[in-house]
Write a structure and sequence with these properties.
This protein is mostly beta strands. It has one domain. The protein is 4% helix and 42% strand. It has a 6-stranded antiparallel beta barrel. A hairpin with a 2-residue loop joins strand 5 and strand 6. The chain is globular and about 35 Å long.
């Protein structure tokens, strides 16, 4: 028997943690423009793009691909694994690298190979 859902009613429910190896570029492509929040809900990133790159792109997964996220100017997240949540994709532990500021905030990149 599963334990009862203890999510407070004012907080969104997120699907279970996802195995990153199962995610495709198309999964992220459907989320461009969406917000991803850190697990502690202190930080919000918006997905700007999800694009395949390289000369050997797998037709099924779209790998390799990268995702570009935008966050606020400050504070800047350090390079490393960040636990993100998204209503459709669930909980994701993604290695993010700050790649520099844009006109409207700091940009971060995650690469999936």
């Amino acid at each position: 028997m599963n334990p009862p859902d203890m999510t407070p009613p004012d907080r969104p429910r997120f699907p279970e943690s996802r195995d990153l190896s199962t995610l495709r570029r198309a999964d992220f492509g459907e989320c461009v423009g969406d917000e991803f929040t850190t697990a502690d809900e202190d930080f919000v990133l918006r997905l700007r793009q999800a694009e395949s790159f390289g000369s050997r792109v797998d037709p099924q997964s779209g790998r390799p691909f990268s995702c570009i996220f935008k966050g606020p100017d400050e504070p800047v997240l350090a390079q490393g694994i960040v636990d993100l949540r998204h209503p459709r994709l669930g909980s994701l532990s993604i290695f993010l690298v700050p790649i520099g500021p844009a006109a409207d905030g700091m940009q971060y990149e995650a690469v999936f190979t």
